[in-house]
Amino acid sequence: NGVMTFDDTISAVATAIGEGGIGIVRLSGNRAIDIADQIFRGSTGKKKIADIPSFQAAYGSIADPDSGEAIDEAIVIVMRAPRSYTREDVVEVQCHGGPVPLQRILDITLRLGARLAEPGEYTKRAFLNGRLDLAQAEAVIDVIRSKTDASLKAAVSNLSGRLSDKIRSLRQEILTMIAHLEAAIDFPEDDIEEITAGNVSGSITIVRVELDRLLASAQTGRILREGLATVIIGRPNVGKSSLLNALLREKRAIVTDIPGTTRDIIEEYVNIRGIPLKIVDTAGIRETADIVEKIGVDKAREFVAKADLVLLILDSSAPLTPEDRTVLSLLPGREAIILVNKSDLPPVLDMDEVKSFVGDRPVLKISVLTGAGVDELEQTIADRVYSGQVTSGEAAFVNNVRHMNQIRQAGRHLGDALATIDAGMPLDCIAVDLKAAWEKLGEITGDTVGEDIIDQIFSQFCLGK
Ligand code: GDP
Ligand code: ZN
């Protein structure tokens, strides 16, 4: 059903570059089996790829068909169309995971007529062949890039089609409204028009509530996907480095360098109750003094402005200093948690004065030295991120800016439809707005979407996926 046929057979190394226990070269397309047959010699039982049943592993070796030179031992798995990732014939060649054997095997498949796959091309074929819808295909990247259990859960839930199902049922409701409008247009008696407009208006309101609910999940979804951009600020010696080091020691998720930016900004991911905190280590708060001192107040203000969350640290064992006040002056308009550190020492800091600066932001007493208050810090962060939403992964999280935009635009068209109804305009004008909303939502699942958008989405994938 709906399998498109692509002329070319694609090939790529599907595993990460570098040394590993095993590596995989993956072929997909009409000639996958034929090409694999020319390089594989079965050691036991099934000698030819064509004789190996789908999903059964066969052991043997890979050799260059021209020179006869042996390249590596290998296990081959055949997945025949349409029961494969791409819905085409797929052959996976598992060999030793070194760059040289993988590259040699890849080169031979290319010489035998395969074409090097573009980034994301396997998943793109899976989409074009109808195995995944667009939102599910996008969830594949999210699964690969997830940073914590919670973000993985949200991505897997979307991969299984939870968001797509929700969107489809909303589209169906809009379609039903359009059908009612069209039926009424065919029987143009005044009272039918009015009753229909009234009914549709009620249905639109219900769908809008659902769209709003999805948008509300988007903030959480984005944070789970990209991480909660966090900066730690405070004057020198309050304990910034100690806090960051403690979090990294116990909660480090993954380390990344941001490609294309200067080396003095490093992002570290810390896993707080499943939330990836992306801590921007500006010019090494870890080693040296503080962000404000090192990069200046203006630059610090810039970082603070970009952050989802500011952790502002004060020292409870000393009075508030002019530098503390400078740091506190960065707070207005920002989401922040105030940490009064060194609570293991005799308290000196005037808490009333602190409270006069921080408004209703949470103020927590902690001691990085003893670990006191760190649990409470984690809970406070989790509460802020989920703000009462379900955390179980049951919800369809919108975690993608593209989807957010389409939902927002669909909501706007529905708002237009309501205004059209209120203005007492003809029914076919309402139908136009509804149709526009229906199309916008279809762009999420890929039911109504242009080729340029599809290309742009799949170009973000890694090679071999
Ligand atoms: P930064 O300049 O803000 O990065 O501060 P540091 O993390 O370098 O800490 C400055 C000093 O305070 C170090 O000697 C730390 O050991 C000490 N310190 C940090 N946290 C605590 C704490 O909770 N209690 C006590 N007593 N000392 C702390
Ligand atoms: Zn420091």
UniProtKB/TrEMBL annotation:
Record-listed GTP binding positions: 237-242, 256-262, 281-284
GO biological process, one term: tRNA methylation
EC id: 3.6.-.-
Keyword set includes Transmembrane helix: no
UniProt GO molecular function: GTP binding; GTPase activity; identical protein binding; metal ion binding
Residue ranges of every copy of the TrmE-type G domain listed in the record: 227-386
Sites where the protein binds K(+): N237, T256, I258, T261
Chain sites annotated for binding (6S)-5-formyl-5,6,7,8-tetrahydrofolate: R26, E92, R131, K465
Location relative to the cell: Cytoplasm
Cofactor note: Binds 1 potassium ion per subunit.
UniProt cross-references to CDD domains, sorted A to Z: trmE (cd04164), TrmE_N (cd14858)
Alphabetical list of InterPro entries matching this protein: G_TrmE, GTP-bd, GTP-bd_TrmE_N, GTPase_MnmE, MnmE_dom2, MnmE_helical, P-loop_NTPase, Small_GTP-bd
Cofactor entry: K(+)
Keywords, sorted A to Z: Cytoplasm, GTP-binding, Hydrolase, Magnesium, Metal-binding, Nucleotide-binding, Potassium, tRNA processing
An annotated GO cellular component: cytosol
Residues annotated as binding Mg(2+): S241, T262
Role description: Exhibits a very high intrinsic GTPase hydrolysis rate. Involved in the addition of a carboxymethylaminomethyl (cmnm) group at the wobble position (U34) of certain tRNAs, forming tRNA-cmnm(5)s(2)U34.
Protein family membership: Belongs to the TRAFAC class TrmE-Era-EngA-EngB-Septin-like GTPase superfamily. TrmE GTPase family.
Subunit structure: Homodimer. Heterotetramer of two MnmE and two MnmG subunits.
The protein, known as: tRNA modification GTPase MnmE
Organism whose genome encodes this protein: Methylomusa anaerophila
